[in-house]
């Protein structure tokens, strides 16, 4: 796997295709850099998800513990001088053109920064869509961060977080990554004590679930009672790195609704338990199920068992970052 790094200041050199030096273009009192770079956009899981009543704006108030994991989409960006135009190429399963959140992220960034430029995006999808893993949100965060580096727009971190929250509830988290607590509708993210790189196995039934449909089903169910102490006991256990302490504190208020809409999820949950996972839970609105094993050896054994019942299985681990620049192909 290639090395990951940030971007320096001054006469900046950028990781990416050909490791190109930025060019420069001046116009209307603003100096605009242009060039190429490549970013890795990780998936996430929700280790804890508490859902409140629907707010007046139609969203539900949530409290969640988000964890980035090493399953990456690749986002390649190129900025060229010229009239504003956004070109998107997608490899894998994802919406094309303006229906793709990457296109919307680029358009929003250019509007907010006042920059005129041609933006070319190549998205390589590896994270399943509509899976509860935040893949599209991570891709959008990669576009925002990458364009901020490429254009020298002057938009700061706070500006990027505000743009991210306009794109989706999970997008701000991926600018931060690692282990974090999300509140509000999920867009208010606060770093937590970072969990170690614990092994995790993800299993997806090969079908997607609409987040809106899961929340509508949730609203029809009797209100559940979140664990005593909220996410605090889970966060304390994560800090120790002891899976045996983390596993019993996993919680997802949407799990029942997701299982009701897609019964295959219940089958995956049961298969994960039978395979020996210490903890098994639906991630977000589903349908992906994640399993916490005792260690790396157990993770491979669980993944092997899960491949007998699920078309998409990934054995990986927690990671401590969000979207990052990458120098070489993985």
Topology overview:
Elements: E1 4-5, E2 23-27, E3 30-54, E4 60-80, E5 85-91, H1 101-113, E6 118-124, H2 135-151, H3 157-167, H4 171-176, E7 179-183, E8 188-191, E9 199-204, H5 211-220, H6 232-240, H7 243-246, E10 251-252, H8 255-261, H9 264-274, E11 279-282, E12 289-292, H10 296-306, E13 312-317, E14 324-326
Parallel strand pairs: 3-10, 5-6
Antiparallel strand pairs: 1-14, 2-3, 3-4, 3-14, 4-6, 4-7, 7-8, 9-12, 9-13, 11-12
Describe the structure.
With 330 residues, the chain is of the alpha+beta class. The protein folds into 2 domains: 4-191 and 320-326, 2-Layer Sandwich (Ribosomal Protein S5, domain 2), CATH 3.30.230; 199-317, 2-Layer Sandwich (Alpha-Beta Plaits), CATH 3.30.70. It has 10 helices and 14 strands. The protein has helices at 101-113, 135-151, 157-167, 171-176, 211-220, 232-240, 243-246, 255-261, 264-274, 296-306; strands spanning 4-5, 23-27, 30-54, 60-80, 85-91, 118-124, 179-183, 188-191, 199-204, 251-252, 279-282, 289-292, 312-317, 324-326. The strands form 2 sheets. Strands 1, 2, 3, 4, 5, 6, 7, 8, 10 and 14 form a 10-stranded mixed beta sheet that branches. The protein has a 4-stranded antiparallel beta sheet with strand order 11-12-9-13. Strand 3 (30-54) and strand 4 form a beta hairpin. The longest helix has 17 residues, at 135-151. The N and C termini lie close together (4 Å).
């Amino acid at each position: 796997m290639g090395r990951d790094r940030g971007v320096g200041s001054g006469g900046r050199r950028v990781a990416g295709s050909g490791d190109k030096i930025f060019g420069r273009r001046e116009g209307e009192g603003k100096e605009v850099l242009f060039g190429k770079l490549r970013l890795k956009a990780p998936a996430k899981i929700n280790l804890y998800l508490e859902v409140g009543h629907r707010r007046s704006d139609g969203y539900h108030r949530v409290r969640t513990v988000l964890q980035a994991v090493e399953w990456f989409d690749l986002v390649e960006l190129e900025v060229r001088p010229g009239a504003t135009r956004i070109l998107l190429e997608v490899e894998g399963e994802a919406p094309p053109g303006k229906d793709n959140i990457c296109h919307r992220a680029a358009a929003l960034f250019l509007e907010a920064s006042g920059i005129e430029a041609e933006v070319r995006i190549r998205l390589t999808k590896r994270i399943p869509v509509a899976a509860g893993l935040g893949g599209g949100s991570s891709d959008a965060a990669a576009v925002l961060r990458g364009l901020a580096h490429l254009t020298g727009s002057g938009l700061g971190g706070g500006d990027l977080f505000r743009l991210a929250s306009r794109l989706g509830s999970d997008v701000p988290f991926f600018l931060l990554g690692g282990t974090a607590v999300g509140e509000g509708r999920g867009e208010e993210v606060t770093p937590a004590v970072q969990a170690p790189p614990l092994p995790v196995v993800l299993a997806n039934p090969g079908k997607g679930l609409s987040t809106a449909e899961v929340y509508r089903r949730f609203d029809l169910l009797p209100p559940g009672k979140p664990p005593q102490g909220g996410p605090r006991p889970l966060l304390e256990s994560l800090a120790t790195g002891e899976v045996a302490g983390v596993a019993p504190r996993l919680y997802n208020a949407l799990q029942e609704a997701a299982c009701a809409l897609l019964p295959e999820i219940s089958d995956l949950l049961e298969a994960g338990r039978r395979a020996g996972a210490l903890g098994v839970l639906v991630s977000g609105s589903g349908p992906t199920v994640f399993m916490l094993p005792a260690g790396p050896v157990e993770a491979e054994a669980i993944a092997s068992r899960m491949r007998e019942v699920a078309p998409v299985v990934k054995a990986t681990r927690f990671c401590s970052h969000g979207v990052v620049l990458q120098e070489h192909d993985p």
